[in-house]
User: Which sequence fits this backbone?
């Protein structure tokens, strides 16, 4: 397939700036969006438009220029003011859209000032994209912070090729209805030629919302690919479950440094079964719920004392936002509580790591872990689930996965699915995993690995581009068939 020139747009560039010993440094950002898209842009080339933060400086520009020179793709940064960052990102994006789209509407703060800034910053992104791109480039906008960029670009360049992918879930009409700007956001999304969401659940919800709040829209097609036709144009709506670079994870898992590190970890844990949890610090990931369920498990199944350990990695995220600081304290309190209740000399049931660890270390922990315990309250996909399986090249290990993660429909073939709100159910799922025979572990892990291998990030990209080609062809023929 001939791939178009790509201009990828996301809120942040995949580089984060930190100051170490008084020296400014650029580091790879962590998080699902970057994990998924970075390998793709590396292989494909193109331009990545995104915010470089709130401090425009010659040093930051220089770091980005140098990084662009060494990389197969180029960075096109824009910079926000502190006020924009606070109202657009922390405010509209993370106090409204993020909780609402994860079905946690009681956490929303519908401040009208946030909306003004959301519109303003989305226009600013559109300006940056316009400057960085040519008329026939494919402009691929990502995620909930940038739902209005396409609309502005469409007004300026009616023939532009515009695609959008939403990394988080799309809520049902009952929940979406709470948004004061619900109709506007839906109309903005219809400015794109192709609208990608993670799962069939999200596609159904989005279509139901369009039907409820924009009654003039005509929806055709069935199943996977649907077409929305309105006075705003034609938009294909399809589910594209995002994935990982399976081979890269599997290869790295077999590498010398990772194998050595696994041996070190195992030497220290002897006959203890390791359970792992890896999450950005976020209330949607169900970390307190997991810790409570783990506490319940230890309380009710004392035969597992000194036989299990939970390695819980929490990556700092959205620091400075009060809800996130509160969550950090809650997680620390629960870790202390469980460890205080059950620790013995020589055994601490939770090994809590509050920082981002290097990728080799992360993969070594996946490889060493007998169980991965993922309890998201709701999740667009959850790449950790897929990464864990890809790293298990010895075809062992058990995945215990929230039924509310976007990954659940694909991975139900081999995972133990749990309801994260059901403390007893999660504890039972963990017990089942820890007691599972090696034969059953192998059988389930084979199916999981097969599923992830055949639907990896490259397949995801190809499916997306293929859908875009079909969209363009259908538009030429002006058929109402998706
Ligand atoms: C959003 C959606 C959707 C984590 N700790 C470390 C580390 N990570 C990497 C993991 C993984 C990524 O961060 C987390 O991805 P998730 O998918 O689990 O979650 P979000 O960041 O919330 O991502 C999500 C995703 O977008 C993609 O569409 O799946 O639903 O919320 O790749 O490996 N990486 C390193 N050290 C760590 O300590 N190196």
Assistant:
């Amino acid at each position: 397939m001939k791939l178009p020139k790509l201009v990828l747009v996301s809120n942040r560039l995949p580089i984060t700036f930190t100051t170490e010993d008084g020296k400014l440094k650029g580091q790879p950002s962590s998080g699902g969006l970057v994990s998924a898209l970075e390998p793709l842009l590396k292989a494909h080339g193109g331009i990545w438009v995104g915010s470089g933060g709130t401090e425009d400086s010659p040093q930051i520009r220089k770091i980005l220029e140098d990084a662009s020179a060494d990389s197969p793709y180029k960075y096109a940064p824009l910079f926000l003011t502190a006020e924009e960052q606070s109202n657009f990102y922390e405010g509209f994006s993370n106090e409204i859209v993020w909780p609402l789209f994860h079905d946690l509407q009681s956490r929303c703060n519908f401040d009208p000032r946030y909306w003004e800034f959301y519109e303003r910053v989305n226009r600013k992104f559109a300006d940056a994209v316009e400057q960085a791109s040519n008329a026939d480039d494919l402009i691929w906008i990502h995620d909930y912070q940038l739902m209005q960029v396409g609309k502005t670009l469409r007004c300026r360049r009616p023939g532009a090729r515009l695609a959008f992918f939403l990394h988080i879930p799309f809520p049902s009409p009952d929940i979406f209805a709470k948004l004061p700007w619900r109709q506007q956001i839906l109309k903005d999304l219809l400015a794109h030629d192709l609208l990608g969401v993670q799962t069939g659940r999200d596609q159904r919800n989005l279509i139901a919302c369009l039907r409820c709040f924009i009654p003039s829209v005509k929806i055709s097609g069935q199943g996977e690919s649907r077409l929305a036709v309105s006075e705003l144009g034609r938009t294909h709506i399809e589910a594209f479950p995002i994935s990982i670079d399976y081979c890269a994870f599997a290869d790295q898992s077999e590498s010398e440094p990772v194998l050595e590190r696994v041996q070190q970890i195992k030497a220290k844990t002897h006959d203890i079964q390791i359970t792992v949890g890896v999450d950005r610090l976020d209330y949607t990931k169900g970390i307190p719920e997991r810790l409570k369920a783990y506490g319940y498990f230890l309380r009710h199944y004392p035969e597992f004392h000194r036989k299990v350990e939970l390695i819980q990695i929490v990556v700092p995220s959205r620091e400075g936002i009060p809800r996130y600081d509160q969550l950090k304290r809650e997680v620390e309190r629960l870790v202390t509580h469980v460890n205080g209740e059950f620790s013995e000399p020589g055994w601490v049931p939770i090994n809590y790591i509050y920082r981002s660890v290097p990728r080799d270390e992360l993969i070594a922990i996946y490889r060493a872990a007998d169980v991965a315990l993922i309890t998201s309250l709701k999740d667009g996909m959850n790449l950790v689930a897929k990464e864990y399986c890809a790293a298990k090249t010895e075809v062992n290990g058990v995945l215990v996965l929230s039924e509310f993660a976007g990954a659940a429909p694909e991975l139900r073939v081999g995972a133990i699915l749990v309801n994260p709100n059901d403390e007893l159910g999660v504890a039972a799922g963990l017990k089942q995993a820890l007691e599972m025979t090696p034969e059953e572990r192998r059988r389930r892990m084979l199916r999981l690995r097969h599923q992830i291998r055949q639907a990896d990030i490259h397949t995801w990209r190809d499916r997306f581009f293929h859908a875009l080609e079909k969209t363009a062809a259908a538009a030429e023929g002006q058929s109402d068939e998706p």
